[in-house]
Design goal:
- The protein is built from 16 helices and 35 strands.
- With about 750 residues, it is an alpha+beta fold.
- The strands form 6 sheets. Strands 16-17-18-19-20-21-22-24-25-26-27-31-32-33-34-35 form a 16-stranded antiparallel β-barrel. Strands 1, 2, 5, 6, 8, 9, 10 and 11 form an 8-stranded mixed beta sheet that branches. Strands 13-12-15-14 form a 4-stranded mixed beta sheet.
- It is elongated and about 105 Å long.
């Protein structure tokens, strides 16, 4: 404060000797979500008519400062930061509806996906390579952050001299390769902001020539020295928190990085604070670097405004000494239009015209394949929503680490540049599950060339559990949606088959071969057809005296040849805990028994399942499910029996249908239908309570299917955790009484 009073006493002399007033520089430090407080500070500075002549920022301070420097007002920044879906942006998520069905099914089962080299397994074979080369540098590539910056900076995406912006700007990054600080004074403002906030280990670094750039807070989180070098005579600084010798709670990677920065920066920070004329320190207690929820952002913005208003006396004195009149407006939006171009935000309904399109990172064949049906064409007029959908469609192929764009030029039509960064083609998947039925299960997958756009692919998977499953699938993807597939599956099952009269142990081994065609890489539908062969070997028999008489339990019938057709629609917004949408699947198989055994007739199986989710306000959802399976033909082999029970379909046999009333599998007659209604309530963001009712019927003749209905009910709770749903429920049925089931992890 003494320093500030001394400076004010010199201002009169300075103003007398010079026609220009002293220049005011604003310093905005890093802090992740806590940097929302910077917006509140800017609001107070605008309210107090304080001119800002230079801005220097780091990390989140670079983002807020960079956007303010190209024309956004504090109120506009407030609206923009609250309008974003930060969970999607900070995690590179895309809408589930933009993903193809194969990708949805993979993510529904596997907890972890570990990418392997961009050239499949070839890098692992090289003596000069290391297994570490295949581990990503960070959790998030930053694809969505980059594209958000593009939406926000239209008109300022050419290579620029930052000193020629409406407010001269600079931001700080750190060159890890060169072990030194790097200050952006020119170039791409998108690249500058993205590099300055690249938290090590969380966001991928930005490569610029030989430099590997990441979060500037590692070396200079509060860049007072930078703004003074730009020409600032008076420094207003916003510092979020401060060094605290007491042990701190580390809740996430953002907190850890902030504490590391404080550890290194304590000495330099003290010098920077000493050179700050007006220091504003918003209260960020209780907030972390990842507190991007709406309530936290609102509170942080208000805390920033209040902290700045507490400096009202110093700001008033500064305004008076600078001869700023009350009626003068200060800030980007107050400057005369002819003196600068304000950046344009591309909202969902805003339209931009494209003059030309340049593609980087793709060879000619890939470019033709990907963009032949794309809306990214010269002469196109695209809304913000259309651009996002097209980018998501390209990114959702899984073939790229990032798909970003820029729109250069000062006015329409703009030149579009699409940047594709190829990603690893192969991957390892890991799934884990613990429940009260199978105790524990692990799912492993190795996909070789699995993420390639076309060509040869191989997938190997194993379910390691009491009921072992192994599968190998070869796939050739043509340069369209058509794929050729051939595969083998082994299944070893041990189960207790319950019915009204008996509890019978049944064990069998199943070997399946198939080959056919399918249409992959489609977001909503999937269809496949071909030939299959199943071989069953039983290790124990079902007592025929107690079993359902419509099935043939002969051990002589082991080999079955058939033709199959499967069709699926998936329009759910989420696989677990969906809030809206529907799904439908059907599979039909015709078994040519007479080709293998003249004494037995052919038979067919037909299965269908329909599910819909209807939202009921913000918290409730109504889920309805209708499912059925019918066997057509006489003396259907017992291996294809209708089996129902438990919360997970296909646990013991491929054809098993889930039912909420009991956990064990039960045998039913050749026509089986179930109907389930769930009412679900969401508490906060991740807690779910549900009540369910179900009815099922079976018969040999479908017209008699509900003569002896089965009823079931369930009350339960689920938590949507990082390792998958954590669930527990109590159930009841009129044939099994009460039961309990608990599980942790995804279903597979």
């Amino acid at each position: 404060m003494k320093r500030f009073i001394s400076i004010l006493s010199l201002l009169a002399v300075f103003l007398t000797a010079s026609a220009q007033r002293p220049k005011v520089g604003l310093v905005l430090c890093g802090g992740g979500a806590k940097g929302a407080a910077h917006i509140g500070v800017l609001k107070a500075l605008e309210d107090n008519n304080i001119p800002i002549d230079y801005i220097a920022g780091t990390s989140m301070g670079a983002i807020v400062g960079g956007l303010y420097s190209i024309g956004y007002s504090a109120d506009e920044l407030d609206s923009l930061i609250l309008a974003q879906n930060w969970d999607v942006i900070m995690k590179d998520k895309i809408s589930r509806r933009q993903k193809d069905i194969d990708q949805k099914q993979f993510e529904d089962k596997y907890l972890l996906r570990i990418p392997l080299g961009k050239n499949g397994f070839s890098r692992l074979k090289s003596k000069s390579s290391s297994v570490l080369d295949n581990i990503p540098l960070a959790v998030v590539k930053g694809n969505n952050v980059y594209n958000l910056f593009t939406k926000l900076t239209l008109g300022y995406q050419d290579s620029l001299d930052f000193s020629r912006m409406p407010i001269p700007f600079a931001c700080v990054a750190v060159d890890i390769a060169g072990k030194k600080e790097y200050v952006f004074h020119s170039g791409s403002i998108i690249e500058a902001m993205r590099a300055s906030m690249a938290i090590p280990g969380y966001f991928d670094p930005v490569r610029k020539g030989d430099m590997v750039l990441c979060d500037g807070g590692l070396l200079n989180n509060y860049p007072v020295d930078v703004v003074k070098q730009m020409g600032a005579d008076i420094v207003i600084g916003v510092k979020l928190g401060g060094f605290n010798p007491e042990p701190q709670d580390i809740g996430n990677i953002g907190d850890m990085v902030n504490e590391m920065m404080d550890l290194y920066m304590d000495t330099k920070l003290a010098s920077a604070v000493e050179n700050t004329d007006i220091l504003i320190t918003p209260d960020v207690t209780g907030y972390s670097a990842l507190s991007f929820d709406t309530e936290s952002l609102k509170n942080l913005i208000e805390n920033g405004r209040q902290a700045a208003m507490e400096k009202g006396g110093a700001l008033d004195s500064l305004r008076v000494s600078l001869r700023i009149e009350e009626e003068d407006f200060v800030g980007p939006t107050a400057k005369p239009e002819e003196k600068y171009r304000k950046a344009i935000y591309i909202g969902e309904t805003d339209t931009v015209r494209i003059a030309s399109v340049q593609v980087n990172g793709l060879d000619l064949s890939h470019m033709r394949q990907l963009l032949r049906h794309s809306k990214f064409q010269p002469g196109a007029a695209l809304t913000g929503a259309m651009i996002e959908r097209e980018l998501d469609a390209l990114y959702s192929t899984g073939a790229f680490d990032s798909v970003t764009y820029t729109l250069t030029g000062e006015e329409e039509p703009y030149h579009m540049t699409l940047n594709f960064e190829p990603g690893p083609k192969s991957q390892i998947g890991l799934g884990m599950r613990v429940d009260s039925e199978e105790i524990a299960a692990i799912l492993l997958n190795v996909g070789i060339n699995e993420k390639a756009l076309y060509g040869h692919k191989l997938s190997l998977s194993a379910k390691l559990a009491y009921n072992l499953q192994l599968q190998a699938c070869y796939n050739y993807a043509f340069k369209n949606v058509t794929h050729f597939e051939a595969g083998y599956k082994f299944r070893n099952s041990n189960l207790n088959i319950l019915n009204i009269d008996a509890n019978t142990s049944y064990a069998f081994r199943q070997h399946s071969l198939w080959m056919g065609f399918s249409n992959h890489n489609t977001k909503i539908t999937k269809m496949d057809f071909g030939l299959k062969m199943d071989r069953f070997s039983s290790m124990s028999n079902i007592g025929t005296a107690q079993a359902i008489k419509t099935y043939d339990y002969s051990e002589a019938r082991k080999l079955f040849l058939g033709g199959y057709f499967n069709f699926a629609i998936d329009r759910l917004d989420r696989s677990y805990f969906p809030t809206k949408g529907l799904s439908f699947q059907t599979d039909y198989t015709y078994y040519f028994n007479r080709l293998l055994d003249k004494e037995h007739n052919d038979f067919m199986s037909l299965h269908a399942k329909f599910l819909f989710v209807a939202p009921m306000g913000r918290r409730f959802a109504l889920i309805g499910t209708l499912e059925g399976r019918t066997l057509i033909g006489n003396d259907t082999p017992a291996a294809f029996m209708n089996l129902m029970g438990g919360t997970q379909s296909s646990r013991y046999m491929d054809q098993q249908i889930s039912f909420i009333g009991f956990n064990n599998a039960r045998m039913f007659q050749s026509s089986l239908t179930t109907a389930t209604v769930d009412l679900r309530y969401r508490l906060m963001d991740s807690h779910y309570f549900f009540a369910s009712g179900a009815m099922a019927g079976d018969a040999q003749d479908i017209s008699d299917i509900f003569n002896a209905p089965v009823f079931g009910a369930r009350l339960g709770y689920s938590y949507d955790s990082l390792i998958g749903p954590v669930s527990a429920n109590f159930s009841w049925s009129n044939i099994a009484g009460f039961g309990f089931y608990a599980s942790i992890g995804y279903s597979f």
